[in-house]
Amino acid sequence: MWNDAAQRLPRTKLRELQLVRLQAQVARIDDRVPYYRERMAQAGVLPEEIKSLEDLVRLPFTSKAQLREGFPFGLSAVPRSELVEVHMSSGSTGKPVVDGYTRGDLELWGDLMGRTLDMGGVGPDDVVQNSFGYGLFTGGFGVHYGAGTIGALVLPISSGNTRRQLETMRDFGTTTLAGTPSYALYLAEYARDHGIDPRSLGLRKGFFGAEPWSEAMRHQIEEDWGIEAFDIYGLTEIIGPGVGAECPEHDGLHVYEDHFYPEVVDPETGVPVPDGTEGELVLTTLTRQGTPLLRYRTRDVTYLIDEPCRCGRTSRRIHRLMGRTDDMLIIRGVNIFPQQVEEVLLRIQGVAPHYQLVVDRHGSMDTLEVEVEMTVDCFSDDVADILALERRIEAELRSALGIQATCVLVNPKTVDRATTGKAVRTIDRREVRTHV
Amino acid sequence: MSEQQLEESPAGEARPAGTGAGESPVDEHIVELGQVSVFLENRPGNLSAVARVLADAGTNLRALTIAETARFGIARLIADDTDRALAALHEAGFTARVDKVFGIQVPDRPGGLADLLQVFDGNVSVEYMYADLKGAGTNSLLIMKLEPVDVAMEILADAGLY
C-alpha cells in the first residue's frame, strides 16, 4: 500500500512518532506564531512541558472565529515568501478562513491524497475524472495532487458542464470519479434522462466528500454507476481533503494520525470523551508548515473507533460524520450559514430580517428555498415591484452564499421569531445523515 | 409605481372624509377610489382566510380581482368601507395597503371600453384594470390604475365622453 510503513506502524510506534512531531510542532508554533505564543502564555503552558500525548489537553483550542480574526496570514508560521499556494473556506460572517501552503505542505497534501486514492485501489492505470471545483476551495486541487502523486491520469474537468462530464468519461475511459455525492447522483440521473446507462461507462471507483452523505446514498451511487464508492474527509483549515478516508472495509474513515492528531470532545465542556463516545472532532496538525493548528474545533460530530481495522492499517477510524455542532448547512457542497441570509436581508431596505431556510433534495440536487416575510414597507399594488424585490433578494443571496436560492415571500409573523439559542429555523428535509 | 404615488398612498393612512370607498369625484362619471390590495401567499386556504376576515368585518365588496404570479398573488378590491377593510386585514396579520385608482363609468354597450381607451390616445398607460360591469344604472364601472395620474385627470376632464 502507499506509505505502507507509515500506515502499518504498530500503535506504540505511532504514538511515539506523534509525540515527537507534536513536540516539534508546538515548539515551532510557539516560536513563530505570535498569536499562539500569547494563547499558550494565557493557558500557562510552555512547549517543553508537553511530555506526553496526554499533555495535549493543556493546549488551548482554536476556533474558526479565531482563524477569521487572523485573516489573511495572521496564523502563518512562515514568511510569506515561503507560501506558494492559498486556499480558502467561507466563513459564517465577515472574512473567510485562509490556509497557506508551503512547498512541503503541497507535497504532504499530494502524499495524503495519494494515500486516499491508493486505499481505494487507484493506481497509474487509472483515469481520474475530478469533478470537484478547482479554485480557492480545496476539493479540486486536493484530488488533483493526489492523482499526480500515485501516477494516475487526472482529468481536471472541475464541476458543472454535465453533458461534457459524460462525454469525457466516454472519450477518455474514466475509471474513477471524484466529486460530491449529490453530484454523482445527479450525473447518473442526467445520463439516464439522455439515454445513457451510467453503468455502461466503465467506471470502477468513486471518491466522494465535501458534504454529509448516508449509507443509503452510497448504495444508490454504487447501484447507479456500478462502482465502489469511498467516503473521504477533510477541511480547508487543516489541509483540505486528505485528513482521512475509507479503506475497502467501508467501516469508518481512517484518520491520517501520523500527520493529524484526532481528539473527540464534549462540545459544551471541551473535555475529551472516551473512544466510542460521540462528540466534536478536534484536530491538531503535526507536520503542517504554513498554517499549523493546535486543537482545531471542527464542529463535526463523530466518534473514534479504537478497534484494529481488518485492512491492517493501524490508524484509528472515525465514524462517518453524524452532524454539526453549529448551524452550518452544506448545500451542493457549499458551506452555508443562516446568518449569511440574515445579513443579506438586513442590507435590503424595507425587508424584515425574518426568514426560514427550507432545504430539500429534488432528484439528486439540493435545493434551497429562503422564505422571507412580506412587510407593509415593501408591499406594492404592482406585481412588477414585488417580482423585482424577489429577484433582488435572490441576486443578493446568490452573491453572498455562492449558490442559487429561491426566494418565497410569505405572510408576516409566519416565521418563528428568535428565541434563546438558535436564531433561525432551518428545515432540512434531506435524508443525508447516518445517525446511530 | 412612482415615488409620488408612494407618498400619496402610504398604506394604513386614514382616508380623508368622503364616501366609505374613499371616493373623490372628478366629474359626474369619474371618481378616484381607494383600492385595497392584499398580499396573497401561495398557500392553500390563504385566500379563503382573507375572504373570511373581510366577511367578519362586515365588508361588502364592489369589485375584486387577483393578479397572480408563480409564487404569490395580489388581491385588489374596492370595498364599501375602505378603512374598515384595511384595519381588519392588518389586525388579522395580512399585508395590505390602499392606493388611489380611477373609477370610470362607461356606457354598458359595445364600444364602451374601446371609446375610452381611444381618448387616452397613447398618452396614458393603463397599469391594470378590472370592472364592475353592472356598475351604475346603464353604465359599467371600470376600475383603472392610470399613469401618469395628472395627465389622465386632464384628459378625462376634457374628454366629453358623455
From TrEMBL, chain A:
Highest taxon in the source lineage: Bacteria
Known partners and oligomeric status: Monomer.
Pathway linked to the protein: Aromatic compound metabolism; phenylacetate degradation
Keyword flag ATP-binding: no
Domain AMP-dependent synthetase/ligase per the UniProt entry, residue ranges: 82-283
A Pfam entry, by short name: AMP-binding_C_2
Record-linked Gene3D superfamilies: 3.30.300.30, N-terminal domain of ligase-like (3.40.50.12780)
Record-stated family: Belongs to the phenylacetyl-CoA ligase family.
Alphabetical list of InterPro entries matching this protein: Adenylate-forming_Reductase, AMP-bd_C_sf, AMP-dep_Lig_C, AMP-dep_synth/lig_dom, ANL_N_sf, PA_CoA_ligase
UniProt-listed GO biological process terms: phenylacetate catabolic process
Top EC class of this enzyme: ligase
Official protein name in the record: Phenylacetate-coenzyme A ligase
UniProt-recorded Gene Ontology molecular function terms: nucleotide binding; phenylacetate-CoA ligase activity
Keyword Ligase: yes
Organism: Raineyella antarctica
Swiss-Prot/TrEMBL keywords: Ligase, Nucleotide-binding, Phosphopantetheine, Phosphoprotein
Function noted in UniProt: Catalyzes the activation of phenylacetic acid (PA) to phenylacetyl-CoA (PA-CoA).
Domain AMP-dependent ligase C-terminal: 333-430
EC number, as in UniProt: 6.2.1.30
Catalytic activity: 2-phenylacetate + ATP + CoA = phenylacetyl-CoA + AMP + diphosphate
Automatic annotation (TrEMBL), chain B:
Residues of the ACT domain: 35-109
Coiled-coil residue windows: none
Annotated region (Disordered), positions in chain: 1-25
Cleaved signal peptide residues: none
InterPro entries: ACT-like_dom_sf, ACT_dom, ACT_dom_pair
Name of the featured protein: Uncharacterized conserved protein, contains tandem ACT domains
Species whose genome carries this gene: Raineyella antarctica
